[in-house]
Write a structure and sequence with these properties.
Blueprint: E1 2-6, H1 32-41, E2 44-51, H2 62-78, E3 85-89, H3 105-113, E4 123-126, H4 129-137, E5 141-145, H5 150-156, E6 164-166, H6 169-177
Helix pairs in contact: 1-2, 1-6
């Protein structure tokens, strides 16, 4: 089984330091929707693992988050692809949960959902060190995109060895498929 786990904000859609709070604010990064569809059509099971502390902070409701995810899924479906699974952490950074990245809780939940996937063959694509750390802790292969907080992440340093870095999700898809 070919499984791919994507972070959301900064990888699939534009991120904001002020949080993506509405369906209208949720805007895809050019090429990301097509990349997901291309990977899906190539036989990848596509999962999304996303920290959504805006829920804990009261910036948006679970219903609004669901509508954002419906929009994302609809756009991918329009391109002939499919997002198979979305896992999100609704907690704030100080809530002490096991799911919030950089902890591997969401990644492990996805891997448990698809037991036929071998973690060491699963890419976790993110734009922050915490995305990569969560993937590595679950035994997956990290891939960093320069979109979102990616450039900031590269500048800070401390990146894992054998890290693949791509310009965006579109070039990441080409790398994964090659």
């Amino acid at each position: 089984m070919k499984l791919l786990i994507l972070d959301r904000d900064g990888v699939i859609n534009y991120d904001s330091d002020e949080y993506v709070k509405t369906v209208d604010e949720w805007q895809p990064i050019p090429g990301s929707i097509e990349a997901i569809a291309q990977l899906s059509k190539a036989g990848f099971t596509i999962a999304v693992a996303t920290n959504q502390s805006g829920l804990a902070r009261g910036y948006f409701s679970p219903e609004t988050l669901h509508l954002m995810h419906s929009k994302m899924r609809h756009l991918v479906a329009e391109q002939g692809g499919h997002i198979d699974h979305i896992e999100y952490c609704p907690h704030g950074p100080d809530d002490g949960c096991e799911c919030r990245k950089p902890l591997p809780g969401m990644i492990n939940t996805i891997l448990d959902t698809y037991p036929e996937a071998e973690a060491n063959n699963v890419y976790v694509v993110g734009d922050s060190l915490r995305d990569l750390e969560a993937g590595i802790a679950a035994g997956c292969k990290p891939l960093l995109v320069r979109t979102g907080k990616g450039e900031r992440t590269i500048t800070k340093g401390g990146l894992p060895d054998n890290l693949t870095i791509c310009a965006n999700l579109e070039t990441a898809a080409q790398q994964i498929l090659s």
